[in-house]
Amino acid sequence: MTVTLVVLGGTGDLTGRLLLPGLAELFGADALDDDVRLLAVSTRDWSDEEYRDWARARLAEHADHVPEAARDQLIERLGHQHGDVTVAGDLRKALDRAEGRPVVYLALPNTVFLATLQALTEVDLPENTTIAVEKPFGRDEADARELNAVLHQLVPEERAFRTDHFLAMQTVLNVLGLRFANRLFEPIWNAGHIDRVEIVFDETLGLEGRAGYYDTAGALRDMLQNHLLQQLALIAMEPPLAIDGPSLSARKADVLRAVQPPADMARDTVRARYTAGTLDGRELPDYVSEDGVDPARETETYAEYTVTIDNWRWAGVPFRLRTGKALGAGRQEIAIWFKPVPHLAFGSKGQAEPDVLRLRFDPDHISLEINLNGADDPFELERRALDIGLPPNPLSAYGLLLKEMLSGVRTLSISDVEAEESWRIVEPILAAWSAGEVPLREYPAGSAGPVPD
Question: Parallel, antiparallel, or unpaired: how do β-strands 101-106 and 277-279 relate?
Answer without folding.
Answer: unpaired
